[in-house]
Amino acid sequence: MSFAAFGLSEEIVRAVTERGYTTPTPIQQQAIPAVLAGGDLLAGAQTGTGKTAGFTLPILQRLSYRSEGSAKGPSEGRPPIRALILVPTRELAAQVEESVRDYGKYLKLNSMVMIGGVNINPQITRLKSRVDILIATPGRLLDHIQQKTVDITKVEILVLDEADRMLDMGFIRDIKKILALLPKKRQNLLFSATFSDEIKLLADNLLDKPAMIEVARRNATADKITHVVHPVDRERKKDLLAHLIKQHKWTQVLVFTRTKHGANKLSEFLEANKITSLAIHGNKSQSARTRALAEFKTGTLQVLVATDIAARGIDIVELPHVVNFELPNVAEDYVHRIGRTGRAGAEGDAVSLVCVDEKKLLGDIERLIKRDINSIVIPGFEVDPRIKAEPIINGRSGGGGGGHRGGAGQGRPGARSGGGASGSGKPSGKPAARRPAGPAGNSGPAAGRGAAALHRSGGRGR
Ligand code: AMP
C-alpha cells in the first residue's frame, strides 16, 4: 500500500516521500480514508503510531482541494482559519505544526502554532495574516478568544489530539468554551490513547456517527523495545546512570525523573561528570525548552532529562534509549515514556533503575504491560539488603531530590495529573489530585477496553 493509493495529491505524496515514508502505518491506513470521506472519527492511538500524519495528510488534502488565493492574504478580508488542532502541550503543538508545514510544503496553505508561555503579541501580529491551520493549546487559544484576536467561527475541521491528556491536565472547561464558538457544521476528529468515562462522554457529545479506529498499543503487540530493570540502591542511581552512559557510549538518551527538582539535580550531576545534559520541565521557560530539545535532536546534547508531561510531544526519529531514572507513579506513564523509543518500527531500549522503594510501582507496570521485565544487576551496583524501603511521598525521588509531582504553571485548575507543559502557563487553582496508580486508573485499550467498547455514536450537542 502506498500513500498515492489514498488519492492524496501529488504535492502531498511528494512531501511524504521526501520525508522518507514509503508505507502508511496501520493508523494511517485507516484514518486517512476515513478523514478524506469527511465524517467524524474516534481513534484510539497513542503517540509513536504515526497518528499525526494520519490526520494531517487528509486535512491538507481536504483544505487544499478548495483553497484559493496566494499564501499571504491581506489583513482585511483574509481567508478564515479552516482547521483547528488542539493539543495538550506546547511541545506537541510545535511538533504537530512542524509536521503540518513539512507535509504541506508544496501546498499554498499556512499554519500557525499558538502556545502559552511566550509573548502573546507576536501571535496577535501573526493572526493578522493568513492562517489556514491553527495548532493551539487550549489555554492560550482561549486567551486570544477573550481578547478577540482570533476568529474560529469558520473552522471546518476540528482535531482533539491526545484528548485524554487534555482532560488529565484539566482542560475540559476550556475545551467546552472553545467548542461552543465553533460552527455547528464541521468535521471532528478525536484522538486518545486511553478511554476513560470522561473521554467517552466527550466523544458522545462531540462526534456524529464517528468512524471508529483503534490500533494496538505498542506494548501489547510485537514491539521492538527491549525492557530491562537494573536493581540499584536509591542513592547510587546517579552513579549507575553515568556508568551506563559511559560504558555503552550512549549518545542520545532521554531520562525521566519524577520531579522537576530531581531533573535539575540529575542534569547538574551528569554535567559535572562530563556528560552533556539539560533538563526540561514545566518551570523552564519555553525558549529554554525549545533550545534543549533542538540540541538534543541534533545530537549536540547527550542526555535530556525530562519530567513526564514536559516530554509529551518529543519526537525524535529512532530515539534509541529511554531511561527511567525513577519509575512513574502512574503505570500508564511508563507506556507513554517508552513510546519515545523504537518509534515507527525502529529498535530501542527502555532501561529502568529501580530501588527498593519502587517495588510496588514495578509490579503495577508489569501488570499493565502484561509481562515481567528482565532484571539485571550491574556488577559494582549490587543492592544493599540492609536498606529499607521508604514511602514515595508526593513524588519524592530516589537519589534525585525532593519536590513534588505537579506544580505551578501547568494545565488548568482541576488538572488531575499536574506537572507539564500546557498552553496557558497559568497556575493551578488547587493542588492537583493524583490519578490512581495501576491499570485501573485510566486504561482503555491496554485493559482490553478500547474504542471498540465505544460503539455508541452520539448526536452532536447532546
Ligand atoms: P506520531 O505518532 O505521529 O508522533 O509519529 C511517530 C513517528 O513516526 C514520527 O517520527 C513520524 O515522523 C514517524 N512516521 C509517521 N508516519 C510514518 C510512516 N508512514 N513511515 C515511517 N515513519 C513514519
- Our estimate of the beta-strand percent is 5-15%
Content-based structural category: alpha/beta
Radius of gyration: 22 Å
Largest sheet: 7 strands, parallel
Would you mind describing this structure in some detail?
By secondary structure, the protein is of the alpha/beta class. The chain contains 14 helices and 14 strands. The strands form two sheets. The protein has a seven-stranded parallel sheet, sandwiched between helices. Strand 12, helix 13 (331-338) and strand 13 (348-354) form a beta-alpha-beta unit. Helix 2 (26-36) packs parallel to helix 3, helix 6 (138-146) packs across helix 8 (172-181) and helix 13 (331-338) packs across helix 14. The longest helix is centred in the first third of the chain and has 15 residues, at 51-65. The two termini are 39 Å apart. The chain binds adenosine monophosphate. Adenosine monophosphate binds at residues 21, 23-25, 28, 47-53, 315, 317, 343-344.
Q: What's the arrangement of secondary structure elements?
A:
Layout lengths: L9 H10 L6 H11 L4 E4 L6 H15 L17 E4 L3 H14 L7 E4 L6 H6 L6 E4 L1 H9 L10 E4 L2 H6 L3 H10 L5 E6 L4 H10 L4 E4 L10 E7 L5 H12 L4 E4 L3 H13 L4 E4 L5 H13 L4 E4 L14 E4 L6 H8 L9 E7 L4 H11 L4 E2 L87
Parallel strand pairs: 1-6, 1-7, 2-4, 2-5, 3-4, 5-6, 8-13, 8-14, 9-11, 9-12, 10-11, 12-13
Helix pairs in contact: 2-3, 3-4, 6-8, 13-14
Bound molecules: adenosine monophosphate.
Adenosine monophosphate binds next to helix 3.
Brief characterization of the structure:
32% of the residues lie in helices and 13% in strands. By secondary structure, it is an alpha/beta fold.
